[in-house]
What we know:
Elements: H1 13-20, H2 29-36, H3 38-44, E1 54-56, H4 59-71, E2 77-81, E3 90-93, H5 96-104, E4 112-116, E5 122-129, E6 132-139, E7 153-156, H6 161-174, E8 178-185, E9 191-197, H7 209-234
Amino acid sequence: MVGLxxxxxxxxxxFLDLVERGIRLFPPALAQQLSRSKCLQAMVYKKWMAxxxxxxxDRHDMIxxxxxxxxxxxxxxxxxxxxxxxxxxxxxWSSIEAAYNQVCFGSLAYPFVVQPFMETAIDxxxxxIGDYSEAYWRNNPHSFRNNxxxxxxxxxxxxxxxxxxxxxxxxxxxxxPNAHIDLMVTADGTTYLGEINLRGGLKGxxxxxxxxxxxxxxxxxxFVKSIERFHYSAM
Length: 235
């Protein structure tokens, strides 16, 4: 089965059913579900993300982490709503206590991701499709949302070897054949994973829309041919 499945928020278990029945998907089911869920990313990619990133599923999670954030003297935090993209589901709070107050009064719906706000971080977008790759920084002087959709600027960025390694590791872990990867680079040079997606906007990228689609189509065609060769050899 080739292409992204139109799975609704309550239908994620269908991925499990398809995999258990031996149906091969391209992109793989894990990559598709990770792309749809910021919360799943925070669970699967926790070791690559900013320290103290967690998924808030209920009040118990928030209360537990309020104590942890207090011990670590963490101030401002960012929350990420589960299925929002383009920076539309990202919110900045003065403290985790402020976010907890809002969720208690119904202004913020569970589940969501919480992580410390890194004011000095450089936002880097990496696009990888087969043997094609590029990276560019994104910055918005008027908002903490650096997404191009939210008005950010961009420029070419040269990734270091350890940053390339991080990209390859997270793609392998999530079975991503191609990816849009967002990295956060701190003032001391530490790089963390922000998020990863199978698709994303190309504003700021060098690759054109038609070339991007051609490369995606080539990967899909290669997958189909590999399946056909497998069935032929099994006969």
